[in-house]
Write a structure and sequence with these properties.
Layout (H helix, E strand, L loop, with lengths): L24 E4 L6 E5 L7 H13 E3 L3 E5 L4 H6 L22 H11 L4 E10 L2 E2 L8 E2 L6 E4 L13 H12 L11 E4 L2 H4 L7 H7 L4 E7 L5 H18 L4 E3 L5 H8 L4 E4 L3 E4 L6 E7 L6 E3 L4 E6 L2 E6 L2 E10 L9 E6 L2 E6 L3 E4 L2 E4 L5 E5 L15 E2 L15 E8 L2 E10 L16
Parallel strand pairs: 2-4, 2-5, 5-10, 6-7, 8-9, 14-18, 21-26
Antiparallel strand pairs: 1-4, 3-11, 8-10, 12-13, 12-15, 16-17, 17-18, 19-20, 19-22, 22-24, 23-25, 25-26
Helix pairs in contact: 1-7, 4-7, 7-8
Length: 446
């Protein structure tokens, strides 16, 4: 299955009452009761949780009812790989100081939980060890959290369609245990009996939901699993069981196994900057230099729900979740407000018309056709006799490989300027074996 080239348009809907720092992805039927809310990333060092939530957002199609997903609730902590850079966010739901840096996010997710459409809440985590009811050893014991379905109580005090949380948790764990990757990965139900004897958990997200008659469960994969793909696998298994309980029908574009999950995790999607150019992050070099952007007010858009940008010195770190995939060293230009939307190029002897941000696939040679007062800069191609590199026939061997943008040294930048202002950037791909008309259109998420 062509997962790498699959780009799905998602609608990121933010309720006016919700924090603008919360990315809420709504899939399925709008305005429906019986909505499942799935939250990932409340702890930034639990990568299985937020990568599972992001895959649910991008690779599942909800056919009936609806699923709402917050894949990266504590996104600043995710990029730092920290449980919580402002303290434990999951201990701020009973009370939070007004000046706490997490206050807006905590208040916003509370509003989402309390939305009348939400019928059940899943908070995804990665926990230490493997929860067992008996004290077997340092990893397998009652103090562990990993490989468990956690509930605060067995039943909600008021009638609710999904109020028998103990029975639901037992059913889900039994179903998951039929599809284990290894026998010692087995799940168990962990009832914290929060109201009776767990003051820490009384401040948690799930207990907040339960006190407002919203059934809530924490799904904990184990931090001691050997691979990220295994953590994600168990999260998605559990989520699918909950969708089944809620009669939410769905399809997905992959087989639920470690190999397929690994492929999806390694697909970092695309990054658009200022709507002038698009970069595929999946096979990108670690650093790109002389990237033409504005001095201030740049707009970064990702096709991956976990995409984020951090300023780092003179440049920018590009993250997918906790993975730094690219460092951009910028070169500052004024952006031309009005530029042509198309250009022409001779590709392997044939004249073709392209959109300004196109990917051009070349077997032998190409040249950009001169147009008006635009000039072309082919990054990595040295033309000592010309400032404008239009109307020059160029082959693969004419480029210095250190200027490629991909790790295979096959993709190079074609930049367009009008006078001294930057307009746009296309990319030329050499000998990738993919015809131009087979390239999927890229749709940006937000």
């Amino acid at each position: 299955m062509g997962i790498k080239n699959l780009y799905i348009l998602l609608v990121f809907l933010l309720h006016p009452l919700y924090s603008s720092d919360i990315q809420l992805i709504k899939k399925g039927e709008n305005g429906q009761n019986g909505t499942l809310l799935v939250i990932g990333g409340i702890h930034g060092d639990e990568d299985g949780a937020y990568f599972a939530a992001s895959i649910l957002a991008t690779n599942y199609d909800i056919k009936s009812k609806s699923v709402w997903i917050v894949p990266n609730l504590n996104k600043d902590s995710i990029t730092k790989g920290s449980r919580g850079i402002n303290g434990d966010m999951n201990r701020k739901f009973a009370f939070i100081e007004p000046n706490d840096k997490d206050e807006e996010i905590v208040s916003g997710i509370k509003d989402i939980i309390l939305d009348k459409q939400v019928s059940l809440v899943l908070n995804l985590h990665d926990g230490h060890g493997f929860y067992r009811k008996t004290n077997d050893d340092i990893l397998y014991n009652p103090r562990a959290w990993g490989q468990s379905c956690v509930i605060d109580q067995c039943k909600l005090p008021e009638d609710h369609e999904f109020g028998d949380m103990g029975d639901i948790a037992e059913f889900v764990t039994n179903q998951v245990n039929q599809k284990l990757l290894q026998k010692h990965h087995s799940f168990n139900v962990k009832n914290t009996k929060t109201k009776i004897n767990d003051k820490d958990m009384q401040q948690s997200l799930t207990f907040f939901a339960a006190t407002h008659n919203k059934p809530a469960f924490a799904i904990e994969s184990s931090k001691n699993l050997s691979k990220l793909s295994q953590k994600v696998y168990y999260h998605l298994l559990a989520v699918e069981e909950f969708m089944g309980i809620m009669n939410i029908s769905y399809t997905k574009n992959f087989e639920l196994n470690e190999d397929e999950i690994t492929k999806i995790i390694k697909n970092y999607g695309n990054l658009s900057i200022n709507d002038n150019f698009v970069i595929d992050l999946t096979n990108i070099k670690k650093t790109l230099s002389y990237v033409p952007i504005k001095l201030n007010g740049n707009e970064f858009k990702f096709t991956h729900p976990l995409g984020s940008v951090l300023k780092n010195g003179v440049g920018y770190d590009i993250y997918i979740g906790n993975i730094r995939v690219l460092y951009i060293r910028p070169q500052y230009f004024k952006l031309k407000e009005i530029c042509d939307n198309h250009f022409e190029a001779e590709v392997d002897g044939e004249i073709k018309k392209f959109d300004i941000n196109s990917d051009i696939y070349v077997n032998e040679s190409f040249k950009i056709i001169k147009r008006g007062d635009y000039r072309v800069n082919l990054i990595g191609f040295v033309s000592p006799d010309s400032v404008d590199e239009s109307d020059i026939l160029v082959r693969y061997e004419d480029f210095e490989k250190r200027f490629s943008i991909d790790r295979d040294d096959r993709i190079y930048r074609v930049e367009f300027y009008k006078n001294d202002d930057f307009c746009s950037m296309a990319k030329v791909h050499f000998n990738l074996g993919i015809k131009e008309d087979e390239k999927k259109g890229t749709k940006l998420l937000y």
